Amino acid sequence: MLKGAHVDDKLSLLGLIINASVVVQLVMASLVLASVLSWMFILQRAAVIGNAKKSMEEFEDRFWSGMDLSQLYLEISQESNGSGAENIFRAGFKEFSRLSQKGPVDSDALLEGVQRAMRVALAREEERLNENLPFLATVGSTSPYIGLFGTVWGIMNSFRDLAHVQQATLAVVAPSISEALIATAMGLFAAIPAVIAYNRYSTKTELLMVRYETFADEFSSILHRNVHNQNAG
């Protein structure tokens, strides 16, 4: 009974991790760390993208409500937590006002400056939305191979253990094979959520960027009409 209990302890999950070789323990530790960081970034991205979508919808309601653009710009400039379309609008209108105050200016040059300012704001928003997504992609693509390395190392240990016994039994190779399988499972456990989250948030980011670019084009068209009407007047 005592011998059987000892074998069961060695084959328990905690026992396998404690009794694993140093290399396999390092593999497991790296996968656990990657999994913890992945979940932290997954939750962070969910909050950032969710807030960005909500902010976009609220700003579009204000923008298309018929409010004077100068008044909207003053209100947004006083807000310290602006993001997304608000930053794009702020950058474009600020550049429009700056160039207009210089006196008579070619309408094409004015609109080109406004569009350039909005492109910079768009790039910053894209960078903000994509933050930490490359890490999720890296975890999703490399974790299975890291786990596979632990698996190969565990199987190598099982064959080495077989070389030192006269009679091969399951009890001799079971611990090494089990720790190898745990490394594989941990690699998949780290990779699967990271891949799902990366694909999901990449798609959401692309959709938000399309909405931002559409807004930038619409805002440019509004400014183009205003400049044309001013020149015609």
Written description of the protein model:
It is a single chain. By secondary structure, the protein is mostly helical. It has one domain. The radius of gyration is 29 Å and the shape is rod-shaped. The N terminus is likely disordered.
Structural class based on helices, strands and sheet pairing: mainly alpha
**Rough shape?**
rod-shaped
Largest sheet: none
Order of helices and strands: HHHHHHHH
Overall number of strands:
0
Give the helix proportion (percent range).
over 70%
Number of helices: 8
- Whole-number tally of structural domains: 1
What is the CA-atom radius of gyration, in angstroms?
A: 29 Å
Question: How far apart, in Å, are the first and last alpha carbons?
Answer: 100 Å
Strand content: under 5%
Contiguous runs where pLDDT drops below 50 for at least 5 residues: 1-7
Average pLDDT for all residues: 84
Subcellular location: Cell inner membrane; Cell membrane
Function: Part of the Tol-Pal system, which plays a role in outer membrane invagination during cell division and is important for maintaining outer membrane integrity.
InterPro entries: ExbB/TolQ_transport, MotA_ExbB_proton_chnl, Tol-Pal_TolQ
Subunit structure: The Tol-Pal system is composed of five core proteins: the inner membrane proteins TolA, TolQ and TolR, the periplasmic protein TolB and the outer membrane protein Pal. They form a network linking the inner and outer membranes and the peptidoglycan layer.
